[in-house]
């Protein structure tokens, strides 16, 4: 008897959090219930989520950037439906995939100077592949990454993670992986000078904190890598596919890398997919003989549904001018948020490109606000941001979250389909919630004391 997924969801939807608590990650359930994010969403469309009462929410997380073209885009759904009903000879392992060739043909011209493509299943897999490819192509072992970098959580990718919060507790990681400060050309030059570096893997804009480089950093980093015989690898897993108002973030600085890593938005959010674009001479050093034709790969890489979703996503970006829309709407949102600086003591900076935007908060000058800020910082560094994100969701139905562990930065990575009406929605929500956070005592600081107590209790239990 065929399974009826719709009936199953309808029958047991109320059990969602109980099932997850019992069989999966109970700590995640505790987090969501503590901050009031334990909603029951029943539908997603474009930039919006809908709950059981059909209330509409503006999703500024977009699956951590996976839904760049919006949730459940009909063009991508149509492509997937065609593949699923066409009975294509999918994953014939002793054969080659037509759809992967077509996707590479559409994608590579957007990756200036790159002419070979390797597909895989995720961003972390793309990073793992790049690590192997750098070593194979150069004959060297050492890999460089930046402080505060995030390249994934698999074993190899974690070895390039610049945040100890993710690394702690997992034992020794891969050797020959060295951290250097982001946006520091002198540190990069010193690290490269030893002559043993296979590759420098860097996010053009760091996702954890939305840290933007100086204008000359990436171009000069590429030049230094070339001079010292190392490969310059750009991780565009979150910043790519139009996120920053250009197809690739490095296009803002007119840089040509040796390798580009893509994932997340490439399939419209429907199917796990990853991609590594590279120069032909690198590819040919890895797959250099017939007996090495399968020296690196993955069972589900190049699956037809992922490749079709990628083709459809690129089509949507072009048909709806979403890269251009990200640039225009994103600049407007940045301007709206920057207007809060000076008017409100907690707001310290606004930065970003396109629809990858950060609003940073910091210690105030007023004595009453200082005391309130210190209470939260003592309980858990970065906790203040929850005094913004929780009311944004509860009062304004805007979903957002912190940009990284232990930092007072909120990151916005919404779908590229945002409208000017959505921009106004964001402006109204932030203006009210940020203003409310400056009223001490007040309802928001009642929430702050509750969160501080939860955080201190959790730390005490862990100790």
Automatic annotation (TrEMBL):
It comes from the Bacteria. InterPro entries: Aminotrans_3, Aminotrans_3_PPA_site, Class-III_PLP-dep_AT, PyrdxlP-dep_Trfase, PyrdxlP-dep_Trfase_major, PyrdxlP-dep_Trfase_small. Its cofactor is pyridoxal 5'-phosphate. Pfam families: Aminotran_3 (PF00202). GO terms for molecular function: transaminase activity. Belongs to the class-III pyridoxal-phosphate-dependent aminotransferase family. PANTHER family: AMINOTRANSFERASE CLASS III, BLR3010 PROTEIN. This is Aspartate aminotransferase family protein. It comes from Dongia sedimenti.
